[in-house]
Amino acid sequence: MRSILFLWALAGSQLLWSQTDVVSRRISGPLVIDGLATEWPQPFPYYDAETRLQFALANDSHNLYICFKTADPLLQVKINQAGMETGIQQKGKTRRNAIVEFPFVLQGMEQDALVGPGTTKLPDIQLLRDYYLSDDSVLFTSGFNKLNGLQRRSGICAIKAALNWDSTQAMYIEYCIPLGELADPKDKNWAGKELLLKVDVHAPEKPGGETTANNNTGSGMTSPGIGTGSITNPNDPTNPGGLGRNANTTGPMGGMNPATASANPVTEADKFYMVKSFRQKFKLSLP
Questions:
Q1: Packing angle of the helix pair 125-133, 73-82 (nearest 10 deg)
Q2: Residues of the chain with pLDDT > 90: what percent?
Q3: β-strand pairing of 25-26 with 53-59
Q4: What gap in Å lies between CA 158 and CA 112, rounded to an integer?
Q5: Are strands 84-90 and 195-201 parallel, antiparallel or unpaired?
Q6: Residue 150 and residue 100: Cα distance in Å, rounded?
Q7: I need a labelling partner for 254 at 20 to 30 A (CA). Which of 102, 161, 164, 187 fits?
Q8: Nearest to 64 by CA among 143, 155, 180
Q9: Around Cβ 18, how many Cβ atoms within 10 Å?
Q10: Where in the chain are the domains?
Q11: What is the pLDDT of residue 119?
Q12: 84, 204 in Cβ contact below 8 A?
């Protein structure tokens, strides 16, 4: 049994790095990190069906830029209420795992803005926006070369993050990560190798302190893989992608336990209180 589990894990680790290549867009100069996404071509080139996030990647000679977009009001509330992690992992011996936690969980959020499933009220996006923009929120960084710890969004830290809304109330989350903070001192050619984008949308606590079991349905990105999510064209968000495997899966790899799937169907309300994740490998655009 131990050998079977080892081979299963080994196969999963290989699948994790066998997804379709994504190459960040090469740009000539720095982007303004304000969450307005006016410098990003629309529509965004990638969509993840598990988290329901559109996203785009770009880089110049000094920085990696990442931007996420969602027009879903409940997802906007979920991200602001529970927080989100965006990580960059390097393949190789060092296995550097750099993470930006942003937005951080906002304490004292006005409850009128945080309306979850099962209520009779719709999310007040304008109130959510006003609350966020009036607050000097923080981000938390770990796994980078030097810039680790709690950072003020308005501070001078070279790792930048911003969140904002456009005129249609679509929400954007924008990041700037210095390549020097990702550089592997043991590997001079690290920038030309595959990197892994890791995104986790955290789950709010249910009213009354209840919690919902983590999602165990697992969907891969276009082909089988560890984790969740399906990378598709944003114009075809219904593409389910391949199968994946979540750490909490109790059934066969890549699926829900058949014995519990029909007895306990997952509703949209349940999904609001579940962690949603995806993994996507990519490469930087080099000169």
A1: 30
A2: 39
A3: parallel
A4: 34
A5: antiparallel
A6: 10
A7: 102
A8: 180
A9: 12
A10: 2-282
A11: 54
A12: no
Rounded CA-CA distance 253/246 in Å is 8
Give the mean pLDDT of the chain.
Answer: 73
Smallest Cα–Cα separation from 81: which of 207, 198, 199, 217?
207
- What predicted TM-score, i.e. pTM, was given to this entire model? 0.73
Q: What is the 3-state secondary structure (H, E, C) of the chain?
A: CHHHHHHHHHHHHHHHCCCCCCECEECCCCCCCCCCCCCCCCCCCEEECCCCEEEEEEECCCEEEEEEEECCHHHHHHHHHHCEEEEEEECCCCCCEEEEECCCCCCCCCHHHCCCCCCCCCCCHHHHHHHHHCCCCEEEEECCCCCCEEEECCCCCCCEEEEEECCCCCEEEEEEEEHHHHCCCCCCCHHHCCEEEEEEECCCCCHHHCCCCCCCCCECECECEECCCCEECCCCCCCCCCEEECCCCCCCCCCCCHHHHCCCCCCHHHHHCCCEEEEEEEECCCC
Backbone φ and ψ for 50, nearest 5 degrees, come out as -75, -50
Structure tokens at 93: 């011996």
Quote the CA–CA distance of 215 and 267 in Å, as a whole number. 11
Tokens of 32: 């303004």
Structure tokens at 181: 């903070």
Q: Is the pLDDT of residue 177 over 80?
A: yes
